[in-house]
Each structure stands twice: as structure tokens, then as C-alpha cells.
Specification:
182 residues; mainly alpha; 7 helices; transmembrane helix; Mpo1-like
Amino acid sequence: MVFLDLEQHLVFYGTYHTHPKNVLIHIIFVPVLMFTLMSILANIPLSTSNVYLNASTLLSSIYAVLYILMEPVAGSLLAPYVVAQSLVGTYCVQRWDGGFNRLAAAVQVISWISQFVGHGVFERRAPALLDNLVQALFLAPLFVWLEVLFMLGYRPELKSRMEAKVRVARARLDAKKAGKES
């Protein structure tokens, strides 16, 4: 199934994230964005009898399952974290009324600005989400998790294949951009 093609997704996402400082910004802020998004989505109930059955729980479960299907080992390590973000976010929303929602929204804004600055200053190109919003938002948490694992020596053959394909794809993007600027 093409949707679950890890390398294809990593090359797409990696093409927009080649500068080490931008990658670091994403490693820091993507988990923050995910936690605050899960917290905000906790405000959308799917059940009247259980506050933990909400849009956040549903989305985190979907992410967890798809991450495991795409990359069984890394996905299995990331899945509990993804689901825990939803549960902790729901807990915080329930305990701190609207105050936590306002904080989560403010952190979302700051985190998005940081990511756009990373793209503008270091990559000098628009972020991936402008070309494929769903893929960028879905893949970002897995991508930054794999970046961390690659730094620790995880699956060096996958990292090498991905980096080679990213160089080719990035060269195409740069050539296309240069053609538009001429």
C-alpha cells in the first residue's frame, strides 16, 4: 500500500528538512505541537460517559496504529508516547478548565512560528505542509522520532537510502525553484 510506504514519506518530508538547525527545531517543536493538538482535541467528546473517549484519543490511536504499520520497531516505541500525549492532554484539559486550552493554543502559535522561522532562515524554502498538509502533519512526529533514532545508529541502511533519495529530490526542487525565479 502506497500510503504506508515509509521511504516514500520520509523522502518527501526529508526533502524539506535538510538543514541540521531546522531538523533540531522540528525535533523540539513537533512533539510540543502534537501534545498541544491532542490537548485541544480532547475538548471534542465522542462519549458522554467517559471523558477519555474524545477526538484526541481517536486521532492518537490512528497515528499509533499507522506508525506501527509503517515502521514496526520505531512505531512500536513511539505509539505509547503518542497515546500518552492524548491521555495527559485530556487530563490537563479536564483539571484546568479553559486555562489549559488557552496555554495550549498559545504554545501552538509559538511552535508554528518557530517551525516557519526554521524553514525561512535555514532551509530558505516553504515547509512541506504547503505541498501536502495531511502528509506533513501525519508524518512529522514519526519523521522526527526517526531522526533521533538515526542519530543513535538505528537502521543505517534506511538512513543512507533516504539521504541519497533526498539529495536527488532536493536538487529537483532547487532546480524548479531556480527556474521560477529566472
